[in-house]
Amino acid sequence: MTAPRITVDLSKIRHNTRCLVDRLKPHGITVTGVTKAVCGHPEIANAMLEGGVTGLADARISNVVRMRNTGILCPITLIRTPMLSQVEQVVENCDDSFNTEMDIIAGLAIEARRKNVIHNIIVVVEMGDMREGILPEHLEGTVCQVLKTEGVSLKGIAANFACLGCVAPTPEAMTMLSSLAVDTERACGSILETVSGGGSANLPWALGKETAGQINNLRLGEAILLGTDPITGQPIKGLYTDAFKLLAEVIETKAIANPNPVQMTDPVLSMVCATIDRPSNTRSILAIGLQDTDAVGLTFPAGVTFIGATSDHIVVETTNSPLRAGDEMTLNMKYSALTRSMAAPDVAKVVRREKALPECIAAKQ
């Protein structure tokens, strides 16, 4: 079988989705499945839909088009602010889009009028992550401008947490976002359909004792796909953490003792390469590299130590279990490794539908 490759267990993705949907439902929160880490893979998207998400979301219009071309008709939201150069594609393929710039909203409105449709706008508010969003004090003015723009409709507001600034969502921040939703409704004179409070990092808050207030939606990617909390990296209770496996083939194995110290000149490589100044049992090379995945986002089997990576190679050291050329090693992936590997053209994707899994027990994280 082709290597390197990712195996995908759709039943585990469907299970994780159903668990999270069921746990959030009593809190009045729906789930939008985020497909950006898997490049809009249609079968994975459908597994999320089968698990109960109310719609899908992606950051790239190419991924949305990929899903549409395979017959996915559910609501899809573009969660990165659209490019002006792509407003036609956005209006044609996306029901909603996240927005922070009136010039782009105006472009979407022009295109929507040309197509005789209404495009839904979700205004993103900057809540401390320092990536994108309108400052809270400017939200009311922006909302009023959107309401006056023919061709678009204000659907809701949203916020991001733990993305660029690694700012974890606090109860105080979520209360503030809920209050902004109330103020926005008062300013626009109608109820917001969507108040999207964030992503997988918001799960501890959403499943805790705090009231959700006006927040009625979360956008979940990592929690569904990997079953882990983005802040702590810890598994979420009741979820599978092995829906994705990366397999790489061994192309060289040598016994090497006392390797010479190496002076790294590239600061990027120096972060992922380790010089081992001690006797080594066996060094092996895997036919996969930084072009294919994020090496520091991989978890290696017991008895295997990561040594370093280049664009096309990953070097490991093994103890008591020497590898041979042609052997395959199975690796677990964190979110960064999954994202890069799913986008890599030389990494094959093998989708599996396993037997039915136990039903999810709606329990807290």
Polypeptide structure, described:
β2, α2 and β3 form a beta-alpha-beta unit. The chain is α/β, with parallel strands linked by helices and about 375 residues long. α1 packs across α2, α4 packs across α5 and α6 runs parallel beside α7. It is built from eleven helices and 16 strands. About 30% of the residues lie in helices and about 25% in strands. It folds into two domains: about 220 residues, Alanine racemase (TIM Barrel, Alpha-Beta Barrel); about 110 residues, Lyase, Ornithine Decarboxylase, Chain A, domain 1 (Beta Barrel), CATH 2.40.37. Strands 1, 10, 11, 12, 13, 14, 15 and 16 form an eight-stranded mixed β-sheet that branches.
Structural class designation: alpha/beta
Low-confidence spans: pLDDT under 50, at least 5 residues?
274-279
**Count of individual beta strands:** 16
Count of the separate structural domains: 2
The CATH topology name of the largest domain reads TIM Barrel
Question: Considering the protein shown, what is the CATH homologous superfamily of the largest domain?
Answer: Alanine racemase
- By oligomeric state, this entry counts as single chain
Assign an overall shape: elongated
Order of helices and strands: EHEHEHEHEHEHEHEHEHEHEEEEEHE
Mean pLDDT: 91
Helix content: 25-40%
Number of helices: 11
Write a compact overview of the structure shown.
It is built from eleven helices and 16 strands.
Topology diagram in text:
Blueprint (H helix, E strand, L loop, with lengths): L4 E5 H15 L5 E5 L7 H9 L4 E4 L2 H9 L6 E3 L8 H7 L2 E4 L2 H14 L3 E7 L13 H9 L4 E8 L11 H18 L5 E3 L6 H4 L10 E4 L1 H5 L17 E11 L12 H6 L9 E5 L11 E2 L4 E6 L4 E5 L9 E6 L1 H9 L4 E5 L13
Parallel strand pairs: 1-16, 2-3, 2-9, 3-4, 4-5, 5-6, 6-7, 7-8
Antiparallel strand pairs: 1-10, 10-11, 10-15, 11-14, 12-15, 13-14
Helix pairs in contact: 1-2, 4-5, 6-7
